[in-house]
Specification:
Strand content: 35-45%
Structural class: mainly beta
Number of strands: 8
Number of helices: 2
Length: about 130
């Protein structure tokens, strides 16, 4: 698939295959997540689809005690908080995702710069991108 034909639904379909898709500009080399048809750096339409490795580092995080509905349905809440964060992928883009494998009972012990790897979480018919320490 050529990135100029990229649709959000393609991203979610590839998540089911445990793949993380984005795009890279042929003109300036900028890498985007999620993929897009037009480069936000130079506005070129010459884009290629890229698959990310899933490796990255924790750039920011928050431990959440009052989650949105979808996370409540997944079992999170006051008694079982979850961690959401921003992950800087080794390829450059930043991704917002659930962070697993960290001690949410000790938020101060979670460290910026922690190496993370993509993890694909299945909830019902959907697959969500998370990152594991």
């Amino acid at each position: 698939m050529h990135a100029s034909n990229f649709k959000t639904s393609d991203y979610y379909e590839k998540l089911k295959e445990k793949k993380i898709l984005g795009s890279q500009c042929k003109a300036c080399g900028a890498v985007h997540f999620p993929g897009r048809a037009i480069c936000s750096s130079c506005f070129s339409e010459a884009m290629d689809e890229v698959e990310f490795s899933g490796a990255g580092t924790l750039a920011a995080y928050s431990v959440i005690y009052v989650p949105p509905s979808a996370m409540v349905e997944a079992g999170y809440g006051r008694e079982n908080p979850n961690c959401a964060g921003i992950v800087k992928l080794v390829e450059g883009p930043m991704v917002s995702a659930e962070i697993i494998g960290v001690d949410v009972s000790q938020p101060q012990a979670i460290k910026i710069g922690t190496p993370l790897q993509a993890k694909f979480i299945e909830r019902g018919e959907k697959v969500f991108l998370a990152f594991e320490a």
